[in-house]
Design a protein that fits this description.
heterodimer, A: alpha/beta, 6-stranded mixed beta sheet, 3-stranded antiparallel beta sheet, B: 2 domains, binds adenosine-5'-diphosphate, binds magnesium ion, transmembrane (chain B), cell membrane (chain B), membrane (chain B), ABC transporter permease subunit (chain B), transmembrane helix (chain B)
Chain lengths: 263, 530
């Protein structure tokens, strides 16, 4: 069992049939994401990031091409619960408490019940004392943190995060950006993060794939060789700002090709 | 979190004051009622509270035993009917391809007129409580089936993705997501079912039972015994309201949030006309097959259990079919002339009052609890009283139908109006739009899904109301026809009437559903997308 599986996409494309028309969401993509790394996907909204992530999770079937994770198909990995996903919408079950929702992540992944692990994770996302509350009693940011704890509770080999911080306020987001990376680094999971925030992508990932508007293609493939842990001094560094600028420029060039042509 | 109650209302003084005020209100209503009854004593319409009390005390034993009998039948019907409704919904979710067919059949059986099924069940079961229990079950299973179906499906896509992302299958989805998500819907269905089961048991007792409140009702009506009729209506209303409140309390006890929408709009799976036609053909074929098949299976005698081909012969092929047809269609015409105006009036008044109340929110504080209470009263049990009050002309029957539909529509539309998104309301507030403007541009569209759901549910209710009023009070239309032919064992006509009503109900339902899809496609497409 490889705990840090590579993710390998060969000619992966996806189109949807909508009312008889075909909508091409992902153009053929070839890429290999090294095991144990965090890869960030950035791109304009609607470009196909979520679709790509769902393909990797095996929640959608590819129209063309194949995806392998380690030596397995996404479906096989999913069937043995090697995968966890945090969605844009926290998708908490309203009839379960915070503790119940996090424990569900373990139960669904067929890991033995372990109240201590669950409580530690809740503490980690800063929700100690809220174990018995229902999702409706929490703010959007707190709900999202529960969803992240739930994703980690299953001890996944591959962690897929789809804009997990979109609903979280800026201060909390900053805190999570600081506190969460050590967590999944310690667990050695491979991970793919979809985000809208360039700074977040640079801060969290080892590699950034900038995608074009729909259908998604890889517009730029940028390595992030910043040292970890990435504390305040890294964020203030020149290298960090240079990387941010590079990603932003790649996004701009591909999102507004006309402006570039006019220059 | 629950909305906090006002600071005052928690204190003991305030509670005593509130109870006092309520007590004075009740006393005032009773006084008015008494005066009205005494003023109209010659017209045999209203029994005074004093007379009703005297009757109840004088016949406490009899009424008590009858109530116990009816409650027993209702409870058993409640159990079986809800079990059937919930299992049907589960089957529909587990076999999505069969859902449309299952829904159509469920609707068809629900629309069967109690007036006709009562005597038939009586023949099938013989003496005893079988028909009452069956009718009580048939009165509730559909109103449980629909919300549970919505509840089982209503979970957001994200919850299904969550379970799937761990590689778990449909069983886990059912256990972790669908069943818990459906629980509040089940309780909401049970709440509607509680009074309906009581009503079903009562109507079941109208035909050939030996004991029960239904028997006493028919006896009192025949004898024009006003205090007795009113006593039974008051008891039925009280029991229904109690049952409704009890299930509601159970829901609160379980700390279930009330469901968002109870009745989702119908799904249009087949976009092409021929697919819809094919589905309709399939539904017809399956219905005929079940009809004939079950009769053959149980070896029911042909004299009484008419097969589809017998009905065809009776109405089309056999000698005298012309006369049969003319009699049946004539009665149907009479009935439709009452049912359609009553149906439309009930819907329009319910929706209209709901809208008016949003313009005058102070009033709704008084009107809504009252309507919630009145919704649970078995209008049908009071149908003779309404018809007596308004006369045997059209007005009485139309009023019974409208009343039957009015309260559920009012509550549903209220609910729909309250679902107008906060942000949209804020937008109108920012521009200081007039309440009328806000109502027409923002709240009315939010109300439409609820109105259409009510319109669909009102079809069986209208059939029940109109046939019962015709049977018990006016002696005209298809309700009276069915009662007559049932008592003269003219089973060809009885089965023909049942088939015709079933067909009319399904057609009316399809018409409303088509209208609903067209309107909602414009006003709230998100309701249709699935
Ligand atoms: N299930 C689906 N059916 C049809 N079209 C879809 C579906 N899922 C996504 N799309 C389309 O694919 C495109 C990419 O969507 P998505 O991956 O959600 O974008 P992103 O996450 O980058 O904002 C969009 O145009 C969207 O409308
Ligand atoms: Mg997305």
């Amino acid at each position: 069992m490889s705990a840090r599986p590579d993710i390998c996409l060969v000619g992966v494309a996806k189109s949807f049939g909508v009312d008889g028309r075909r909508v091409e969401a992902v153009a053929p993509i070839n890429v290999r994401l090294a095991g144990g790394q965090m890869t960030a996907l950035v791109g304009p909204s609607g470009c196909g990031k979520s679709t790509l992530l769902r393909l990797i999770a095996g929640l959608e079937a590819t129209t063309e091409g194949t995806i392998t994770i380690g030596a397995e198909t996404p479906d096989a990995l999913r069937r043995r619960a090697g995968l966890a996903m945090a969605f844009q919408d926290p998708a908490l079950l309203p009839w379960r408490t915070v503790e119940g929702n996090v424990a569900l992540g373990r139960a669904l992944a067929r890991k033995p019940r372990d109240p201590k692990v669950v409580r530690d994770l809740i503490a980690l996302v800063g929700l100690s004392g809220f174990e018995g509350r229902r999702p409706a009693e929490l703010s959007g940011g707190m709900q999202q943190r529960v969803a992240i704890a739930r994703a980690l509770a299953g001890e996944p080999e591959l962690l897929l995060l789809d804009e997990p911080f979109a609903a979280v306020d800026a201060l909390t987001r900053d805190r999570l950006n600081t506190e969460l990376p050590p967590l999944w680094e310690a667990r050695g999971a491979s991970s793919v993060l979809v985000t809208h925030s360039v700074a977040e992508a640079v801060r969290l990932s080892d590699r950034i794939l900038v995608l074009t508007p729909r259908p998604a293609r890889i517009a730029a493939d940028i390595a992030v060789p910043l040292p970890r842990p990435r504390g305040a001094e890294v964020l203030a560094s020149r290298a960090f700002r240079a990387l941010c600028a590079e990603v932003t420029e790649a996004l701009r060039v591909h999102q507004y090709p006309d402006t570039v042509a006019a220059q | 979190m629950k909305p906090g109650r006002g600071a005052l209302s928690g204190s003991p003084e305030a509670e005593i004051f509130g109870a006092l005020r309520r007590g004075v209100g009740v006393a005032l209503v009773l006084l008015l009622w008494e005066l009205l009854a005494r003023a109209t004593v010659g017209s045999y319409i209203i029994a005074a509270p004093s007379e009703i009390t005297r009757h109840m005390l004088g016949h406490a034993d009899l009424l008590g035993r009858a109530l116990a009998t009816t409650l027993g039948s209702a409870a058993r019907g409640f159990l079986w009917g809800n079990l059937a409704g919930a299992l049907l919904a589960l089957a529909a979710v587990l076999m999505p391809r069969g859902e449309r067919l299952l829904s159509t059949l469920a609707l068809l059986v629900f629309c069967l007129p109690l007036v006709a099924t009562g005597p038939i069940l009586r023949v099938l079961y013989g003496p005893g409580s079988g028909p009452q229990v069956t009718l009580a079950a048939m009165a509730v299973y559909y109103t449980t089936f629909l919300p549970v179906l919505v509840g089982l499906r209503a979970a957001p896509q994200g919850w299904f993705d969550l379970v799937r992302s761990y590689g778990r299958g449909p069983v886990t989805v059912l256990r972790e997501v669908r069943l818990p998500a459906a629980l509040p819907y089940l309780v909401a269905g049970l709440q509607i079912a509680a009074p309906a089961a009581f009503l079903g048991a009562m109507v079941g007792e109208f035909t050939g039972a030996e004991r029960g409140l239904g028997v006493l009702t028919v006896r009192a009506l025949r004898a024009l015994d006003l205090p007795a009729t009113w006593s039974i209506a008051v008891i039925a209303a009280g029991v229904s309201m109690l049952a409704f409140a009890a299930v509601g309390a159970l829901g609160r006890r379980l700390d279930l949030a009330p469901p968002e929408v109870l009745l989702a709009p119908p799904v249009a799976r087949g976009r092409r006309p021929w697919a819809n036609l094919a589905e309709a053909g399939l539904a017809t074929a399956v219905t005929l097959l079940l009809w004939k098949g079950s009769m053959e299976l149980f070896g029911l005698p042909r004299f009484f259990a008419k097969r589809p081909e017998d009905v065809w012969g009776y109405l089309v092929a056999a000698p005298g079919a012309d006369a049969h047809r003319a009699r049946l269609l004539g009665a149907l015409g009479e009935t439709l002339a009452m049912a359609v105006p009553g149906y439309l009036a009930g819907l329009l008044l319910g929706a209209g009052l709901a809208m008016a109340l949003t313009l005058r929110p102070r009033l709704s504080g008084a009107v809504i609890p009252l309507s919630i209470a009145l919704r649970s009263i078995p209008i049908v049990a009071t149908a003779p009283l309404v018809v007596w009050a308004l006369g045997r002309e059209a007005t009485g029957t139309i009023a019974v139908v409208a009343l039957m539909i009015f309260f559920p529509t009012l509550i549903a539309c209220q609910h729909g109006l309250a679902r107008t998104p906060r942000a949209v309301l804020d937008l109108f507030a920012v521009y200081a739009a007039s309440p009328l403007r806000r109502l027409l541009d923002a709240q009315l569209p939010a109300m439409l899904p609820a109105l259409f759901a009510s319109a669909r549910m009102a079809i069986p209710a209208a059939i029940l109301a109109v046939t019962t009023a015709e049977w018990l009070a006016t002696g005209r239309g298809i309700g009276a026809l069915m009662a007559t032919v049932a008592s003269t064992s003219d089973y060809g006509m009885l089965w023909s009437a049942i088939a015709l009503i079933g067909l009319a109900a399904v057609l009316a339902h399809a018409l409303v559903a088509a209208l609903e899809r067209r309107v909602l496609a414009r006003t709230s497409p998100e309701q249709l997308a699935r």
